[in-house]
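protien #1 (seq + structre)
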Amino acid sequence: MVDRKVLAFILTRMDAPGVWIRTERMRMGLSTRDLARLAGVSYPTVSRIENGHEQPRWSTIEKICAVLGRSLTPIADDGEQLRLADLSNAWTKDATGDHHPEWVRLRGLVDHLRRRPLLVAQAILPEPPPSRSELMNVLLAAVAEKLADDHGIARPRWTRKRPPLRQPWSLAARASKRDADEANIPEQFRKRGLLIPVSTIWRDREVIPV
């Protein structure tokens, strides 16, 4: 829940909630339908609020603010707001010069968003700064696209600027393991040359800590 004191402060100082909502929604690159879907509010309700035809209920504005306003969104329980843009450096280089993503950090982000789906848009819409690893640049785009598709919102525009890898990259060294993984590679990854099974990042719900 959004802190009601914070909401009261904002709402008593805005000329019209609909104007603020539309401005923040457009700033994040969300359509009205995207916002409605993420907030769990009907599309006509969001549209009427934005156009000044309806005063939102407190519960409705809480849901919308949780999606739109980072300053109005309760920070994660551990005090940290996790974003894909913070993971550009989440990779290492071995002695041979090969790059290796830090899977633990990626899993942590995905686990966090499974517990707090309202934060998906905030987590994926800011473009991650360019990484010195081409693999990481492409992987972050693939993760953003899968998260967007899984939650029924538009893919971030920045992912279009990141082309597929020039050579396919596989996590498995052995051909037999690659064949076993083949059926479990997300389409968003496959199109970018990432031969990575979904379980590498998306863990079973049973093992995600609450």
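ok now protien #2
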Amino acid sequence: MKQLIHFLSAVLVLLCCSQIQAQVTEGDVTWHNQAHGAWKIEPLPMQGYVIAGNRYFAGPNTDIFLSKFDEFGTFNWTKSHESGFSSLSPFWKNFCASTFPVGFFVIESGIKNGQWSYYSLLTNQTGHKMWDRSGVLPDNIVFSGVTPATNGGYIACGSGNGGMAVCKFNSSGVLEWSQTYPGIGWAWSVKAAVGGGYVLAGGTDVTKIDLTGNVVWQTNINASSSNANYTFAEFDEITPLTDGSGFIVSASAFGGSFSGITTAKVSWTGSVLWAKVVDEVNTSGAGTPVTWVNNTILGNTPGNLVTSWRKGPVSSGGPMFARVLNSSNGNMQAISSLGGSTLVRQGFSTRAHGKFVVGGVRGDLTRVFSFVNGSYMQGTTPAYVEEPGVPTVLPTMLGYQTNVYASTPNFRTKLLDENIELNPASRTYYTDLRVFPNPSTGMVQVGGLMEEGATLRVIDMTGRTVMVKSIAVGDQIIDLDLSGQPKGLYSIEMIGKNQNVVKRVVIE
């Protein structure tokens, strides 16, 4: 009997180990035989992730590349978009999700016709170009971050004239205004702020500006440890907290002979509530590891944060590590390996579809990768619910939604694998369909990839059909006037030959 028990225990251990290993999946693909950069990954509403970048380590650097991986890390497609520029600047995190129509916005800078100019690009969810724009850009601004603006369009940040730069683009990708701040260092990241305006992080500074670009406050973060006093940091990303108490910034920090990961909590009024050195290494020897942060994301358990980073030589990259922190006081759990085999050179993490995902480029910079750990964040109650097809929007963040209704689509892009995502059997078929705004007071727009000849039906909570509209050739946005209907939850169904899609909207 004891032998049988030992045998069954051993089998159970093997099964558990196999299950844990199965939770880690990886995928990559060669973008081009020349080196690329990619520091940003965006989740899709249903399944999968999109990673963007360009070929700034080697010429000709003229195109924007987007690659899609499914939720298991398997490569699906790549799209390339020609900018028409003779040279583009480095691609950092100047790539963000667009809320309407669902898709992605890219802002770049570079040389066109001998002038320093901007290049703006909007794609749909499947990477197809909706439009692109270009125009003269002052102050030699280089972009490193972008976010949807609270009053429509996009806010981008970076560097210009030797200091921080901020630009506002309208919903059609046209520059509205720009401002540089010579006394403030490079801004790597920007997010809308609770209470209005925007917060920007870069160097060792966090800065808040109002809607027109005026500085409201500025805070310096200088985390220290027993080994080093960090005098330089690159705060790569801003993570707003769902309880409204502030936001999290994470950075790669350097000082003396040490490289460290710094994570800090800042209130919306500019107070540093805590700052922690999450990990550090001695970098005094040649070829020694350097810690390089991905960013910090919300954990599944309320109040938990997950900071992730790669640790290895600069040229080859290294494996991924992560640490859980308490958002209230910064208390840290033990450092954990994320279990992947990819040597990460540049990466960015995200939390979506119940999994922890990292995307970026491998050590040789020629291959874009997706790394998924499906077990690291499981086993706890989610801090918020991710409903497929509906963006997670906090009540204080409703202004994040961006309306591009007035823009003119332009489909001049050269596509790769053009029809791969248009297979009716695909799980991502027609997931571009989006309802905006949601919640609504009555006027609703339905936009995205629609099936010609399909029918849109609006159904109330009792199952009664309250409105029916047909989708004609070329329809991309359809207006629905539900202002005369009772308040409550409604289903909007697209019924077609190839696919049925159901979206929900709340009428307030």
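The chain is about 5% helix and 50% strand.
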